[in-house]
Every structure is written in C-alpha cells, then in structure tokens.
Design brief:
The chain has one helix at residues 26-71; strands at 85-86, 92-98, 102-103, 109-117, 123-126, 132-138, 141-145, 155-158, 168-171, 190-198, 209-213. The chain has 248 residues and is α+β, with helices and mostly antiparallel strands. It has a five-stranded mixed β-sheet with strand order 3-11-10-6-7, with no helix packed on it. Strands 1-5-8 form a three-stranded mixed β-sheet, with no helix packed on it. Strands 2-4-9 form a three-stranded antiparallel β-sheet, with no helix packed on it. The longest helix is centred in the N-terminal third of the chain and has 46 residues, at 26-71. Helices cover 19% and strands 23% of the residues. The protein contains one helix and eleven strands; from the N terminus they run H-E-E-E-E-E-E-E-E-E-E-E. The chain starts with 25 loop residues before the first helix and ends in a 35-residue tail after the last strand.
Length: 248
C-alpha cells in the first residue's frame, strides 16, 4: 500500500509570503537617508546661490534710484496763506541817482528812483511821493521833501523781482513845507545830499547821493559904462590928455 503525498503544488495566483530576509538592511536605510539629506542640502545651497544672483542683479537698479532721488531738490515749502503783509526793509532794495553832479542856476534837479522787491513772498508798499519819499538836505537841515506835496496813497503789491515803474522825481530848487505851502524861497548855491526812504518802514533808506548847485556867473561889464561922461559934465579930450584946469 502506497503512502499518500502531503505536499501540494501552490495554487495559481497565490503570492508567497515574504520572510524575514526580504526587509531592507540598516545599511540600505542609512544610504537612503544620506541621499535624501544630500538632496536637501543641494536644494538649500541652490536657493541661496539663486538669491545672491537676484540681489546682485537688483542692487545696481536700487543704487541708481537712490542716486536719482538724492539729485532731486526738495520741493519748495509752500508760502503761508493769508493776506499780504507790508514790506520790510529787508524785502526792499532802494536806490537813488542824480542826473548830473553839478547844476547851473535855473536848472531843475532830476533824481532817478529805484524801488525793487527782493523777498520770497509778495508784500505791500506805498509807492506814492508821500510814501516813497525823496529827502534833500543841506548839511543836517532838511530843505525839501517829496512827501510835503505828495500825492495820495499808491499801494503796490510787489512780488519777488518787481520794480516800481514810476522812477523820476524833479526838484525845482525851492524849499518845501508840510502841507505844500506855496511861495517857498529858492535855495542858494552849495552842495546838497539826497536820500530815498519809505515812510513808516524802519531802515528802508537808500545810499545818499550828492550834487552841487553852482553859483551864478559874475555879471559881464558893459562896454558902454567906460564912455559914460563924468558927473560934472566935462568931457575928456579925444587924445586922452587931462582936461585944462579952470582959469588956465
């Protein structure tokens, strides 16, 4: 009698069970970790290098922008709003010149006035003969002022660089009095000093200008006076000899 066989052929489709020898060894796991760590380090280094390249590329652009910003001047500070104020001595440039250094008798003195605004904001100034006054002195004595016969107020709103268009002042060599009193006497020959000032503005005075009023020339002798007969009625001889004495 035969013994029955106990081993059977495996069924189709059945997978064999893995045994303990199919698990990865410790060395394989270590190698996998080292590779993963190397990949991570390479990725970090690549990102760092890429960042440096980007910084180097952008840095010149940023430097150029900063240089452009430094080259730009700061915007001007806007002027304070509100009504214009009166001009001060620091905001005005005053000048006065005479048309000649010497004036013959009967010739009027002509003075040229310069009034210019030099401040950074508009201001008001009186440009009339009473406000923008010309003063003429003989030594320390005031002999004439344009304010004595000045016109009414002439307010000028002047911006930086503006000049007063009214420039010529004429002095007829007569004295003046407050209120423009008429029939003032004429001044005599001599040296005079004139200045320009702004009424009510301390320190607003021009440099002085000097000129001379000449004396009239001496009278010319009349030739007819040399042939006038003496008071006693005698006529000198034509030859120039002395007349004979009485009873000669």
């Amino acid at each position: 009698m035969s013994t029955p066989r106990t081993d059977r052929a495996p069924r189709p489709g059945a997978s064999p069970r893995s045994g303990p020898g199919d698990r990865p060894t410790r060395g394989a796991l270590l190698r996998r970790r080292l590779v993963a760590l190397a990949l991570l380090v390479g990725l970090v280094v690549g990102l760092v290098l890429l960042g440096q390249v980007v910084v180097r590329a952008v840095q010149p652009l940023l430097a150029g922008d900063e240089t452009a910003q430094e080259g730009k001047s700061a915007p001007p500070t806007p002027e304070a709003a509100g009504p214009p104020q009166d001009c001060t001595a620091a905001s005005l440039e005053l000048g006065l010149t005479a048309s000649a250094a010497e004036y013959e008798p009967g010739r009027a003195v002509q003075l040229t006035v310069t009034l210019r605004q030099s401040s950074g904001r508009p201001c008001l100034v009186d440009g009339s003969d009473a406000g923008r006054q010309v003063l003429v002195y003989s030594g320390e004595e005031l002999v004439w002022s344009s304010a004595d016969c000045g016109t009414t107020e002439r307010l000028l709103l002047m911006s930086t660089g503006d000049e007063d268009p009214s420039k010529l002042v004429r002095w007829d060599r007569h004295r003046s009095a407050e209120g423009c009193a008429p029939d003032q006497p004429e001044v005599g020959p001599g040296t005079y000093t004139a200045v320009l000032s702004i009424a009510g503005v301390d320190g607003a005075t021009s440099e002085p200008v000097t000129f001379t009023l000449l004396e009239p020339p001496p009278p010319t002798p009349d030739p007819a006076d040399a042939t006038t007969p003496p008071a006693d009625g005698t006529v000198p001889p034509a030859d120039g000899t002395a007349p004979p004495a009485d009873g000669a």
